[in-house]
Design a protein that fits this description.
Oligomer: single chain
Order of helices and strands: HEEEEEHEEEEEH
Structural class: alpha+beta
Shape: globular
Largest sheet: 8 strands, antiparallel, barrel
Number of strands: 10
Helix content: 10-25%
Strand order of the largest sheet: 1-4-5-6-7-8-9-10
Amino acid sequence: MIRHTAIVAAFAFASTALHATTYTLEPDYTQGVFRWNHLGFSSPAAQFAQGQGTLEFDPGDPSHASVRVTIPLSTLYTGVPDLDEDFRSQDFFDTARFPSATFKSTHVEAGAMQAHLKVTGDLSLHGVTKPVTLDVTVIKIGTNPRTSLPTVGFEATTTLRRSDFGLGKYVPQVSDEIQLQLISQAVEAKAYAEYLKAQEAKRAGKK
């Protein structure tokens, strides 16, 4: 009986996986903002963009999703040139040695409300890999009216301790906790690849 139950469960999981669709994250719409407390006086923010990666997603059962994303830290921007330079230096992100951050999900479960997910995964940053859990909201699943491509949009939040990743300079005067907000828009991979080819051919035809 136990063996029969295990076989049924395995078959059910395999069937679910077969219904998952591969999506490509759109770099122009995969970005994030992080915020910290500065000496108790203010809460500045910085942003990064042009994330690249893939998403396995079944709209009928989002809890079986998985995601991989890479963020180029060269896009890090605060609006203050001296601070941008400081962040990219060896005192902080050391982007010459660690040019990107990556996240790979390991577990997804349904959240407390509809369209909410808890996505746990491994965040690799500044040469350190730590587990992180994201609170994810599925914003919309449908067809992009401008490209006619199947698209899904998400946003996510989490809180990190920067000292966990070897980025603890000026703690505790500058907060150890970092508030992170992410957005991502993903397109069905095959359709997106064909769309990009068509766009490239159109541009080449205009030259």
